[in-house]
Amino acid sequence: MMEIVEVKWDDAWIDTDDYLKKDSEKLKPIRRTTVGFLIADREDAIVMCTDIYEKDSKHINAPMVIPKGMVVNYWIWEQQKD
């Protein structure tokens, strides 16, 4: 059984509107919370995915790599056994 992780992280973003320089200096990253199956907790990144194939646990779907420098905090959820 793979662990479930919740990651709170700051994401980069872009906008095509025009801003005054003084207003753009106040812009901040977007805070996100993402939940998924933990694939790897490495020194440089957390790797997770949305789906695991039950018939073949060697394959996953929709991998996501969040650089550790963007991570605010993360939790591994305790799972109940069937």
Q: Which structural class should the secondary elements be placed in?
A: mainly beta
Distance between the termini: 11 Å
Strand order in space, largest sheet:
4-3-2-1-5
Total number of helices? 1
Structural Rg: 17 Å
Order of helices and strands: EHEEEE
Work out the strand percent.
over 45%
Low-confidence stretches: none
- Calculate the mean pLDDT score and round it: 93
Question: Can you put this structure into words, describing what you see?
Answer:
- With 82 residues, this protein is mostly beta strands.
- The protein has one domain (4-77).
- It is built from 1 helix and 5 strands.
- The chain has one helix at residues 21-24, and strands spanning 4-11, 30-41, 45-52, 60-67, 71-77.
- A 5-stranded antiparallel beta sheet has the order 4-3-2-1-5, with no helix packed on it.
- The model has no long low-confidence stretch (mean pLDDT 93).
Salient structural properties:
single chain, 82 residues, five-stranded antiparallel beta sheet, mainly beta, elongated
Layout of strands and helices, then pairs:
Blueprint: E1 4-11, H1 21-24, E2 30-41, E3 45-52, E4 60-67, E5 71-77
Antiparallel strand pairs: 1-2, 1-5, 2-3, 3-4
Give a nutshell description of this structure.
By secondary structure, this protein is mostly beta strands. The protein has one helix at about 20-25, and strands at about 5-10, 30-40, 45-50, 60-65, 70-75. It has a five-stranded antiparallel beta sheet with strand order 4-3-2-1-5, with no helix packed on it.
